[in-house]
Structure formats: structure tokens, C-alpha cells
Amino acid sequence: MKGRFILVAATDSAFLAVLEETLANTPYELLLATSGQQAIDYVELLKARIYLVVIDLDLPGVSGLHVIWRLVTRKRPKPLKIIAAIAAKAPLLKHVVKELGVDVVEQNSTPVRVLRRTILSILKSRPQGKASSATAGV
Hints:
Blueprint: E1 5-9, H1 13-23, E2 29-33, H2 36-46, E3 50-56, H3 64-73, E4 81-86, H4 91-99, E5 103-106, H5 112-124
Parallel strand pairs: 1-2, 1-3, 3-4, 4-5
Helix pairs in contact: 1-5, 2-3
């Protein structure tokens, strides 16, 4: 695996479909993790080559919050952007995640266009560099 990656850690098929469509034309390879442990494994394997993580906090096994904690507390040569998808009825969790410096979207109530705009805005703010144009469904 070469290039730069966007890691999507989620299990909701509708949410995944929106993310795949949004990220299809970006110069990043897409990695799909369906559990918190799989997301951690990708991060350990690819280290600084992951630029953006979009994560559902309700993952099986290791929680999305634990994954975020691991991501924000490890030393990285370049900043990592994280978007967390949270259930609308979790205001305290939303506050905690925001305090960790993570962008938050409410998974069931955020319109698709807002989610797309948030992701594309983060990707546009990244300095131009080499990135692979292949998309990988893992």
C-alpha cells in the first residue's frame, strides 16, 4: 500500500455509502474498518500516511472513542484530521469529543450535503502533495 489514505471506521451501510461516494474522486485511497480494533490496526500499519479519519463512535469491540483517544495521544509528524459521527442524543459525548479537537457530525440528523462539505473542506485545506488516486475497499 502506497500513497495517502482516508480511514473510514463505521458499520452503518447508508453512512458508508455516502462516505464512499463523497471520497471517490479524491486523490486518496479509502480504507474501510468495521471495528475499532481494525481501525487501530490500520493506524499502526500506515502511521503518518493516514490524513483523515471518519469514525462512528458506535463500533463493535473497541469503541470509536477509544480509537480517537489513541489517535490524538500518539506523537505524529503531521496533524491528523478526525471527524466523529455521533448519535444526536449524546450531548455529553459530543462535548468530550470536541474537547479532544475532533470535528463532530450527528450521524442521523446531519444532512448528507453538510457531511460532504465538512469532509471536502478538510481535504481542501491540506497542502498539495503526492497522493494515490486508487480507491481500495478493504
